[in-house]
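Late entry, zinc ion complex.
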Amino acid sequence: MKILSFDIGGTKIAFALVDEAGKLLTQPVKYSTPASKEAIESLLKKIIAQHENEIDAVAISTAGTVDICNQKITGSVGNLPEGYGKIDFQALSKKKVFVVNDANAAVWAEYKVGHAQGMDNVVLLTLGTGVGVGIIIDGHLLKGKSGAAGEVHFPVRQDNHRRCGCGNYDCLEVYMSGTALNLDAKEAYKDDNMTSHDIIAGLKENDAKALSVFERWESMVETGVRIFASIFDPDIILLGGSMAHFINYPMMEKHVNEAIVTSPIKLKEAEFENNAGIIGGALLCAESLK
Ligand SMILES: [Zn+2]
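Prediction complete; structure with ligand written out below:
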């Protein structure tokens, strides 16, 4: 089986041909995400037309919540252009088009061919602009009634300190995401030019202030991990996103396991940094064709 698999995000669109076992048959090709709905549609159409005759289906892993029939986007597409959520993906190809939320695709890739292989209860938290959450319970992808299970838009503070993109104050997302570390850096240094990359550079030079900013962010990530460990009793929690690379995993795993009342969890960095959406989307698409 050959699947043309896309990963569509706010900054880039990547695609590759993938087989039913999740193996990349071609190197992923990347484009900057076009600035309008129409331009995205015509880019996808052009790529699909080039491959239409050799493929069995199209998989689309995308930012945004996706309906439980895996056909259309139902909400919250982040920084994608206006109208993107209304694209009729099936109309882009004569073959079946399977649409899936990118966090759900990513956790499926980890479960089938990544760091969560052999474990039936898995949570993947991707710390990026927001926090992408994918949850597998008893070998099933948890979707919820509208495909939006696992959103981290609930407050973890009560003092209206930081506004979240969703409009509420102090959601876990604005303290745990990659963006949160940026905000922490600006706050700590009272300098709007500071970013998470300055903090990481500081860590490498053993700078005490950078270390304290990073550790404060890490403690909020730990809070998030504890929440998911407590609610879902998973075998493993994986953390993804570029800032997740710098987390002290053995220490956080120890802290979390000392705090939770369930049996211990494993905590690891996710295996796939860039191709998780492409691989997981193709695997889920292949399964839906069976
Ligand atoms: Zn929020």
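The longest strand covers residues 12-19. Will revisit in the morning.
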